Amino acid sequence: MVELRKVNKIKGEVTVPGDKSISHRGVMLGALGEGITEIEGFLTGADCLSTIDCFRNLGIETELSGTKVVVHGKGIYGLKKPDKILYTGNSGTTTRLLSGILAGQSFDSVITGDASICKRPMSRVVKPLSMMGADIKGEYCPLEIKGSALNAIKYNMPVASAQVKTAILLAGLYANGETEVVEIEKSRDHTERILSAMGADIIEDGLSVKVRKCDKLTGIHLSVPGDISSAAFFIAAASVMKGSEVLIKNVGVNPTRTGILDVARNMGADIKEINYRSENNEPVCDLLVRSADLKGVRIDGAIIPRLIDELPVIAVMALAAEGETVIADAAELKVKETNRITAVCTELKKSGADITETDDGMIIRGGRKLIGADFASYGDHRMAMSLAVLAQMTDGKCNIDDISCCAISYPEFFNDLYAMEDK
Ligand code: S3P
């Protein structure tokens, strides 16, 4: 057990690590580009390192120094047959996006990951890829992929998932004709933005994205903004700890990712977006967050994919809010690194929270007195960091079984949190 130390309130500046989604895509698309793709502000978390490792096994040379990565792209048809099983660790993004790329190669490959990955559904990518002509065995990892000739399809997605959308679009680069994906709700569109910058023939129109078979992508310079999903922990912490004021610098505010800002503001949070700018076709700004009195809100519908990874910490914020917060339409939380509906409800209850688990979310009645507890992280980085915020709101000592999982997306999280302590 590790103690989750209390910091009373936080003040100062923090620069959160690079966006996980963009970092993965930079390496993958850089590998398929011609020439060098230089990535600055790369997230050196375990998931993105898994992506680098998989692409090294596919013959792509990468140099990592600090947070800079140089990817020596070999072009759309430049990957080589790996001589071992491709291991994706804990990373759903690596697993699903890679299967889209590997489906259309001229060689066979096998992908697998850790115990959590082996429980996460892969049929959601295997099914549409098979419709394109892919030969993939497995509904769960390991996935055995026989390289095949692919044909374009139009696919109406049954779930809102950027990983599924991207897997199909990446396979679409290899498929004869024009591949179209139609989403039920708009999910993050970093793939579309990077592909377009690299010269792919890609058209976004509302919920539809079309891509054509592609012979050439050109290497680019990519500057990765800070991950709003990591900033979310400080947005929550500064909001609930009276007297806090934090400047979170260089945060990516792509509109497909800013649901947390909309919801936090609806709850009464005091957040200012300053120094607004655009880098690599991605909007970026600094977020100034001050503590505030919060009230409960309803969170459902189209906003869910725009804040899916932030829901655990939003649930924690809701404990500090007056009244009821309802999270609905979020059944996707069940198939994340752990079942985040059950995990959040179980752990928050340990601190005395009034919370009811539902089929597609939870109902939280805020404003109750919270007590110290021994928490479980479920090996899930976002659970561990959310519980660290909860620990700040309790009377009494809080412990957690493991914080090493934070290395997935935010290796320095606790150092950054404690460095802002204002006594
Ligand atoms: C991601 C998409 C989301 C998100 C994950 C990263 C991506 O998953 O939860 O952390 O980079 O495409 P889904 O596509 O399963 O919703």
Provide a compact summary of the structure.
This protein is α/β, with parallel strands linked by helices and 423 residues long. The protein has 2 domains: 2-17 and 225-419, UDP-n-acetylglucosamine1-carboxyvinyl-transferase, Chain (Alpha-beta prism); 20-223, UDP-n-acetylglucosamine1-carboxyvinyl-transferase, Chain.
Descriptive account of the structure:
- With 423 residues, the protein is an alpha/beta fold.
- The chain folds into 2 domains: 2-17 and 225-419, Enolpyruvate transferase domain (UDP-n-acetylglucosamine1-carboxyvinyl-transferase, Chain), CATH 3.65.10; 20-223, UDP-n-acetylglucosamine1-carboxyvinyl-transferase, Chain (Alpha-beta prism), CATH 3.65.10.10.
- Helices cover 29% and strands 26% of the residues.
- It is built from 12 helices and 25 strands.
- Strands 2-17-19-18 form a 4-stranded mixed β-sheet.
- Strand 18 and strand 19 form a beta hairpin.
- The mean pLDDT is 98.
- The structure holds shikimate-3-phosphate.
- Residues 21, 93, 161-163, 166, 188, 308-309, 332 line the site of shikimate-3-phosphate (S3P).
Classify the fold: give the CATH topology of the largest domain. UDP-n-acetylglucosamine1-carboxyvinyl-transferase, Chain
Q: Sheet with the most strands?
A: 4 strands, mixed
From the alpha carbons, calculate the radius of gyration and give it in angstroms: 21 Å
How many helices?
Answer: 12
Query: How much is the average pLDDT?
Result: 98
Low-confidence stretches: none
Strand order of the largest sheet: 2-17-19-18
Shape: globular
Note the beta-strand portion. 25-35%
Let me know the number of strands.
Answer: 25
Hetero groups? shikimate-3-phosphate
| N-to-C span | 25 Å
CATH classification, class level of the largest domain: Alpha Beta
Portion in helices? 25-40%
Number of domains: 2
Name the structural class: alpha/beta
